[in-house]
Design goal:
The complex is a heterotrimer of chains A (279), B (358) and C (311). Chain A has 13 helices and no strands. In chain A, helix 4 runs parallel beside helix 7, helix 7 crosses helix 9 and helix 11 runs antiparallel to helix 12. With 279 residues, chain A is an all-alpha fold. Chain A is globular, with a radius of gyration of 23 Å. The longest helix of chain A is centred in the first third of the chain and has 32 residues. With 358 residues, chain B is α+β, with helices and mostly antiparallel strands. Chain B has two domains: 225 residues, Rossmann fold, CATH 3.40.50; 114 residues, Nucleic acid-binding proteins (OB fold (Dihydrolipoamide Acetyltransferase, E2P)). Chain B is built from eight helices and 21 strands. Chain B is elongated. Helix content of chain C is 73%, strand content 1%. Chain C has a two-stranded antiparallel ribbon with strand order 1-2. Chain C is globular. Classes of the chains: A mainly alpha (279), B alpha+beta (358), C mainly alpha (311). Chains in contact: A-B, A-C, B-C.
Chain lengths: 279, 358, 311
């Protein structure tokens, strides 16, 4: 904006602010990584040093091969992928309906979906426990997938709707004039164009399911059905001295989210501007 | 080829009536242009013919077969969209051949038809490009190619040229005219641009507020507008309207001057006189005179905006370059044979005039 | 074509009519039904069941003490000191979290709305905390505040904030700041993304016009940027406040509500009551109370927004 003359003080201030934000954002993650690769005997002696004098990958090796973490990791992957796939499929259908049809009750359904985003989810933790228990589905990963899918559908629906809204209606109509049924138009024209949207939604839902802790704590109690967050938490309370291993496990937990984040980063602004606002 | 009939067609959205009692016969091979201001329902009518909007009431027939509830894909009609609606993920060839792909026509036939259409439209070098790598005019051609490749019974155009710049628009207009001559197919064309309407149409349908105002050939509409709306909508620059008092043998203008009109049957109820800017002569022995306010020199024509005492503003267009300066007093003569008279309800009063045929 | 010949005879016509009716009235529900069914069974029915629980005694550890108890749970809640402490904590937790998240997020969004070298990479990196799983953010910050392996207590001593390096989450007076800092870290990207999107939707002609009219940078900010952002800010802050007030994960992992309930917020209290004590009736009563409070808050804020924001 100010083309007149670049004031050096302002420029310096701006870069200082940028650096500040960057440090604030990355330092905790850096510290996680640092402790994870510090040999055990150095953790206390070099407690607050920014860089350890020697490195080790022992912690990762121990975590991966001598604990249940691979099993937890597998459980979480199964639950998160299952949730992401189911949610995206269902939300794509709902988002398509919202984007392309005008029908009775549309406003009410949208309002109900918005309200589900507002009330404390913990409010239904007791009823959910009772219902799941009455079906004998406690300690089952499938019940987690069902519950997570329902929780994520409203947001994913609004997200998918915004992607469908971005595809001109003319394209479908042109396809129908060209001889497609509505379903053919959906498959041949709309689906290929909405692939990025589907990818972004998959990523969002995967990340959300990957982080969920409280409902998993409630519904899962057996060690072999634990998800990664639960595993890490029990690990923390059981072995609260083995810092290196805990942080190594933390770094491992970070990997899938970060991978998805890199993939969906581009769509963040686009997705979040379109009405649906949620963490 | 197809004959299209609309019988008492109505379109309602809830309680809002968008189109009222539309009756229209489109002959086989005819080029019909639907024209009107935005919101007049012309696009809705086209989309109802295409099958993209349900018809609320009335009958829509192609070759005497009722098609109201037939799905768009089974109507065998092609449509060119305002936005072109090219499939962004398909190259030009696949875009054009998509309808044949859906019908599962043999690939070799598809390829040869695509090639033929591409040759016709000058797209041969571009068949492997994606739409995003095309210019506006090229996209427009692809959209037309997609329509002609199917050899449909009728073509629909929804303001196809409105996204092009002026020069391209003229070029594509000629292209569409040529296409119609070559294919001889029934075409229905929606536009808000009266130049497109006048140049392309066999017959023009003027719509306003959900009603058909008039159907006729371009010259019909220009010379014998059925009402004030058509009179002002067709023709550029817009027709002047002057309040009058009707009386036998002529009309009285607001300044009291009597304008004798030949062949005036009986027009005591006329309250407005319409005269096109090109039908007012600049002369010293005129019926009226006014002060030139703004003068536009277009080279081929001169537009003069005048203020006439007690009558209000008038616009006059003269062929050639007329050396008039703003502020000058100009004498005017209204050509009586080109006068239009309008009743209080806006409808035109017909004059039995022998020299109207011109 | 078959459809064409069908359309002539009467039965074909009704079939076609039905197909159009199907297309415009029924088809959307075909696409919607899985979503509706799932939301209904997993969220709405449990919500109603949960409200009914709040009028019952349901303790899994005490299976003989069940049945309808009327408003007993609510009476107990009224005289429950822990609940009132949790309510107060919820207020401060939400207030400080949202204030810092918003201000820092606005600053970041303004920075990202300017041009500088390496912007894309910078943006990806500063948004990274948002992608970190909540439980991991909680653990990471808990470790950072731990004087044994974390640097923060030592730095705070160096800055004179603490007298000696101890874990602030063990001190009831300031323990809440642990989860709040973690929450700020986690939430700034969200605000920055939302506000950045809003900033980018302001037409640049407005800034050019303001510059031609001789506005200073500060005037441009207060006369153009803020009024434009206001509706977005109001909505985002409202939704985010509700979200943060409900957000128990960080607190549960970092402090478990301790020490001495000094970090217990209402939603973590709900979870502890349901999960640890398995007292579903009382947990549901707390939840209904929280829902009620949030509803009042939302109504007040919507009313204020209508009064204040004219766009």
């Amino acid at each position: 904006m100010s083309i007149a003359r670049p004031r050096p003080l302002l420029i310096a201030g701006k870069y200082a602010a940028l650096l500040g934000y960057l440090t604030f954002a990355l330092f905790p993650l850096y510290w996680l990584l640092k402790i994870a690769i510090t040999p055990d005997q150095l953790i206390f002696t070099e407690g607050t040093q920014l860089w350890p004098s020697s490195l080790t990958f022992d912690n990762f090796r121990t975590v991966l091969f001598q604990t249940d973490f691979l099993a937890y990791f597998g459980n979480s992957l199964y639950v998160s992928l299952g949730t992401a796939a189911a949610t995206t499929l269902i939300a794509a259908g709902a988002g398509y309906a919202f984007s392309r049809f005008d029908f009775g009750g549309k406003k009410i359904i949208i309002a109900v979906m918005l309200i589900t985003q507002m009330f404390p989810l913990l409010m239904i933790i007791a009823p959910i426990y009772k219902i799941v228990a009455s079906f004998g589905m406690l300690n089952s990963l499938t019940s987690l997938i069902v519950v997570y899918t329902a929780f994520n559908i409203p947001f994913a629906t609004f997200l998918m709707q915004s992607f469908f809204d971005g595809i001109p209606k003319d394209l479908e109509e042109a396809a129908m004039m060209d001889g497609c049924s509505r379903f053919q138009a959906l498959r041949k024209v709309i689906f290929p164009l909405t692939l990025p949207g589907l990818g972004a939604t998959l990523g969002f839902v995967f990340t959300a399911a990957w982080s969920e802790l409280l409902f998993a704590l409630m519904l899962i109690s057996k060690n072999e059905a634990m998800t990664f967050p639960m595993g890490l938490l029990t690990f923390v309370s059981k072995f609260s001295v083995d810092w290196g291993q805990m942080m190594a496990a933390g770094v491992l937990a970070l990997i899938p989210s970060c991978l998805f984040f890199i993939f969906i980063q581009r769509y963040l602004v686009q997705g979040l501007t379109s009405g649906a606002v949620k963490g | 080829m197809a004959r299209i009939e609309l019988r008492n067609v109505v379109k309602r959205y809830g309680a809002v009536e968008v189109l009222r009692d539309i009756n229209l016969d489109v002959e086989d091979g005819e080029f019909i242009v639907l024209v009107g201001p935005s919101g007049c329902g012309k696009s809705t009518l086209l989309r109802m013919i295409a099958g993209l909007e349900p018809i609320t009431a009335g009958d829509f027939m192609i070759d005497d077969i009722r098609m109201n509830d037939v799905r768009p894909r089974d109507r065998d009609i092609a449509m060119v969209f305002q936005s072109y609606a090219l499939y962004p993920h398909m190259d030009v060839a696949r875009n054009m051949g998509f309808s044949m792909e859906i019908r599962k026509d043999p690939a070799t036939e598809r390829a040869s038809r695509v090639k033929q259409a591409a040759d016709t439209l000058g797209l041969t070098a571009l068949t492997e490009r994606l739409p995003k790598a095309l210019s506006g005019g090229q996209r427009q051609r692809v959209a037309m190619g997609r329509a002609i490749i199917r050899d449909p019974r009728a073509f629909l155009f929804d303001e196809p040229l409105s996204n092009l710049d002026a020069a391209l628009r003229v070029e594509m207009r000629l292209e569409i005219a040529r296409l119609h001559q070559k294919l001889g197919a029934t075409m229905i064309y929606v536009t808000h641009d009266q130049v497109e309407a006048l140049t392309l149409a066999d017959r023009i349908v003027v719509l306003n507020g959900g009603d058909i105002q008039q159907v006729g050939s371009p010259l019909d509409l220009y010379e014998r507008p059925a009402n004030k709306f058509v009179a002002q909508f067709i023709g550029s620059p817009t027709m002047n309207l002057v309040p009058i008092k009707g009386r036998p043998e002529g009309v009285t203008l607001a300044d009291g001057a009597l304008l004798k009109l030949p062949h005036l049957p009986d027009s005591p109820d006329a309250i407005e006189l319409g005269i096109r800017p090109e039908h007012i002569e600049v002369t010293d022995q005129g019926d009226l005179s006014g002060i030139a306010d703004v003068v536009e020199h277009l080279g081929s024509d001169t537009n003069i905006y005048l203020n006439v005492e007690k009558l209000g503003p008038l616009m006059v267009r003269k062929h050639g370059n007329i050396p008039i300066r703003p502020g000058e007093r100009v004498g005017l003569r209204i050509q009586p044979e080109n006068v239009h008279l309008f009743a209080p309800d806006g409808s035109a009063l017909r004059r039995a005039s022998p020299n109207m045929a011109a | 074509m078959t459809t064409r010949s069908q359309a002539i005879d009467v039965s074909g016509e009704t079939r076609a009519r039905r197909s159009l009716y199907w297309q415009y009235m029924v088809e959307p529900f075909l696409y919607l039904s899985p979503a509706i069914v799932l939301i209904g069974t997993v969220m709405l029915i449990p919500l109603i069941v949960g409200i009914s629980y709040s009028f019952q005694a349901i303790e899994l550890l005490n299976p003989f003490n069940t049945g309808w108890v009327g408003l007993e749970n609510y009476q107990q809640l009224w005289s429950d000191r822990k609940f009132w402490i949790a309510l107060e904590n919820t207020f401060w937790w939400t207030f400080w979290s949202i204030s810092f998240q918003f201000l820092l997020g606005l600053g970041l969004a303004m920075l990202l709305n300017t041009q500088f070298y390496g912007k894309k990479l910078f943006q990806a990196l500063v948004f990274l905390p948002w992608a970190v799983p909540t439980f991991l953010s909680a653990l990471t910050w808990a470790w950072l505040f731990n004087p044994v392996i974390g640097p923060l207590p030592h730095w705070m001593v160096a800055l004179g904030i603490l007298s000696e390096p101890y874990n602030i989450m063990g001190d009831p007076e300031i323990a809440m700041w642990g989860p709040i800092v973690a929450n700020i870290w986690f939430g700034v990207p969200f605000f920055a993304i939302t506000l950045l999107a809003a900033l980018q939707s302001i037409p640049s002609e407005l800034y050019e016009a303001a510059e031609i009219d001789g506005a200073s940078a500060w005037q441009t900010f207060t006369k153009i940027t803020l009024p434009f952002l206001a509706p977005m800010i109001a909505i985002t802050v409202m939704l985010r406040t509700i979200w943060i007030a409900n957000f128990a994960d960080l607190i549960y992992v970092m402090t478990g509500g301790g020490p001495a309930n000094s970090t217990q917020i209402v939603s973590s209290y709900i979870f502890t009551t349901a999960f640890r004590k398995l007292d579903f009736g009382y947990a549901s009563a707390i939840a209904v109370a929280l829902l009620f409070i949030l509803l009042i808050y939302a109504v007040i804020l919507l009313w204020l927004r209508k009064k204040l924001v004219k766009i």
